[in-house]
Amino acid sequence: MTGQPLWTLQLDRSEVDELAARADPEAPLAGVRFAIKDNIDLAGHPTTAACPALAAKPAGSSATAVRLLLEAGAVPVGKTNLDQFATGLVGTRSPYGACHSVASPAHVSGGSSSGSAVAVASGAVPLALATDTAGSGRVPAAFNGIVGVKPTRGLVSTAGVMPAVADLDCVTTFTTTVAAARPAIAALTRPDPADPRSRPMPPRPPVAVAALMRVVAVPDGEMELDPPHEEAWRAALDRLRGIAAHVVPVDIGPFLEAGRMLYEGAWLAARYAAIGHYLEPDGPHLDPTVRRIVLRGRDIAGPDVFAGFERLAALRAQTGTVWADVDALMLPTTPGHPRLSEVAADPIGVNARVGRFTTFANLLDLCAVAVPAGERADGLPFGVQFVAPAFADPPLLDLAAAWCGEPVVSAPADPGTTLLAVAG
Amino acid sequence: MTGQPLWTLQLDRSEVDELAARADPEAPLAGVRFAIKDNIDLAGHPTTAACPALAAKPAGSSATAVRLLLEAGAVPVGKTNLDQFATGLVGTRSPYGACHSVASPAHVSGGSSSGSAVAVASGAVPLALATDTAGSGRVPAAFNGIVGVKPTRGLVSTAGVMPAVADLDCVTTFTTTVAAARPAIAALTRPDPADPRSRPMPPRPPVAVAALMRVVAVPDGEMELDPPHEEAWRAALDRLRGIAAHVVPVDIGPFLEAGRMLYEGAWLAARYAAIGHYLEPDGPHLDPTVRRIVLRGRDIAGPDVFAGFERLAALRAQTGTVWADVDALMLPTTPGHPRLSEVAADPIGVNARVGRFTTFANLLDLCAVAVPAGERADGLPFGVQFVAPAFADPPLLDLAAAWCGEPVVSAPADPGTTLLAVAG
Fold this sequence. Notes:
- Helices cover 32% and strands 15% of the residues of chain A.
- The first copy, chain A, is α/β, with parallel strands linked by helices and 424 residues long.
- The longest helix of chain A has 19 residues, at 302-320.
C-alpha cells in the first residue's frame, strides 16, 4: 500500500488464490508472488503498455516468460505501470500516473519499468518481470535500491511482449537480492521457437566470456556525475577493489557513443515501426512526450538507418577489443537521480541523461546486472551495474552476488577450470 | 585472349613479374596468378567498381583479402569487370562493356562478378577473387561452368571492399575445381580487426552444422525452370542420390520469400546508403539500370526498414527449423540462362529472376558453394549450389568436392566423430 500508481491492474484475490492452488508445491518458485510489467501478456487480462485505449482487449495467451514463471510455481498478482510503450527511463510518462522512488516522493522511480521496481522495493512482491531496451530493467533498480538482471538478448523469450525496439528488447527481473533472481532467471532462460530472436546459451561460452570475473574495468576519466552520485561512486570504486582481483581503467567513450544512437539515431525508426500505429489520433490516452519522441522516428530515412548500422558495427568492433583483457565493466547505473520537477521541466533532456550509462548495453550485445551500492549522502539509493559480453550471464551473476555479499554459486562454464571463490 | 571486356585493368608484365619474384616459393599459393574483381582494393591501382569516374584515384593499400593471397604467394594480374557497384547478376551493367558466357556469345556471363568468372573459365587465371551479396559469386560460376565458393559472412574480411549491402557482402573465390579453391579459402579465412563484421570460425561448430553432410534437401514442388534447365536439374537430382546418404524434399517458399526482400525491400536502402553518393550527377560513367535501381532505395522509410527486419527475423526462424533435420540444401544456381538480348529487353525483371535461388543465402546467414552440373541439352553449362548454415563451410566444401568427384579431405569439425567418406 504505497499510495503510488504502481499497478495498472491487480488480480482479484480469488484469481490469485486459484493460481496459487494450481502451482506445483515442489516447483522452484512455488508460491512466489510476482508482478508483471504491463507490456507483457498475461492471459485473460489486457496489456495496456500504459495506454488506456488498449485496456479493453484481454490477451489470448500469456507471454512465454509469464508461462515459464507459472510453470516454475510462481503466482502473478497484477500488471504494473510503466513509461508508456516502454519509452522512457523516468517513470513519469504514463496516463496512469507518475511513480516516485520508494526513498523520496520528490525523486523519480526510474522507468520504464516503474511499477515493477516499486512493487519489489516496497515489499508488495518479491519478484517482478520487467523489460529493458535502453535501461528500463536497470535504472529503476538503481533508483529504488534493488537488483535488476538484464540477460543477454535472446536468452529469455520476448514472445508475448509488446515490442519497443524489437531487435533490442529484453525481458528482465527485479528482486531484492541476486539469490532471489537466480531461480527466476533459470526458469526464464529457455530457447523459444515462438520468438524469432531467441538464442540458446552456447554449449561453450564464447572466447570473450571469462569463467570467473577477475578483471573488472571502470571508466577512465571524468564521469560528469551529480555531486552526491560522484561521492557514492568513489565509495563504490573503493569497495570494488576488495572484490575484484584486478581493477583497470578503460575509455568508455565508444560505449557511450553507441548508446547515444538509441535515442538520436536510426533506432527511433524501429520504435516508430513498433508503436507508430498507436499514436494517431492524439488524445489523453497518449503521453505527450512519448508521442513526440516516437513520431520523430517516422521521418528517419531508410539509408540513414543503414548508415547508423555501419557506425554501430564499427563501434561494436572497437568496444569488442576491451573484452580481450577485461571480464566485466562496472559503471554507475545512472549519472544522477532527477526530481520529478526536473523531469517535468525538461522531459526529453533529463531522460536522455539518465540513460547515459545504460543505453549501449543492448546495442552492443552485452548482458548486465544492476545492484544496490549503498546510499548517497542525501539518503537516496545509489546503484552500480556490471556489464559483460553476450552469454557471460552466469559469471556476471556471480560477480553481482560477490558485490552484494551473497554466495557465489555458479559452476564455471568450462568444466576444465577450477572454481575459485570471488567474494571478498 | 577472349576478346571479352573482362578486364578493367591489366597489370604490366613487369609488375606481375616483380610481384611473382617477391612471393615466398614455399607458400601454399606460390606463383598462382589471380584476378581481382574491381570492387576490391589492390594497392597502387584504382578501384573503379566499373565506374570510370573512379579510375583516377589509386587505392592506398590492398584489401585484407588481397593481402592474404599475396602473403600466401599468389600473384595478381589485373582487376576485372563487374556489374557496376556490384549491383546486378547479369554481367551487362558496365560502361566497360558486357561480358558473355564462355560457352555462348549470345548468353550472359552472369554477374556481378562477370570478369572474374570469365577470367577463370577462359583459362586466363586459375583463381579469381569476387564478391557475393545477392549471388554474384555463384551465378557467374553457373553460367561459365566453374566453382564459386561463398563463405559464411564474416569469415573472410571485407575490409578494402567497396560495399554494396555492407551487412551482407562476402568475398568469394572462382576456380575450376573445389581442390583449387581450398588453399585460397584457407588463406582468406582470418579474423580481421579492420572489418567490424569479421567473425571467427567458432571453436566448435554450432548445433545446426553437421560434421558430415549426410542429409541433403532439395526443393519440393514446382521450380518454374526454363525447359533446358529443368532437364539438367532432373539429371542433377539423379546424380545427387548417388552422393548423399539421404535426399529429402523441403518447402523452399520461406527461403525464396526472404530472398525477394533483397531487391524489393529494406535492403535497397542499404545499397543507397553505400552507393548513393556516386549517382549524382548522372552521366555516361553510370549504368542507367544500376542508377535507376539504387535511387529507389533513397525513398525507403526508416520504419519500413525495421518492418523488413521483423519479417526477415520471422523467416530466419522459420527456415532455421529446416537445419534440425537437414545438413545441406541443393538448388539450381539459377532458374534459367538468359540471352543478352533478353536482359536488354527487360533489364530489371530478367535480373531478378536470375537471382531467385541465390538472394536468400546472405540474408539468412548461410554459406554456399556453386558447382558445375554438366551441360544442358543446348550445350550451355548448368550449375547447382549447395547451401548450409553459417560456419558449415568445411563440410560443405567436402560435399561440393564429392559432387565434383574430387577428394574429400576436411577432417570433421568434432574430433570425437569418425571420418566417413561421403564420395559416391
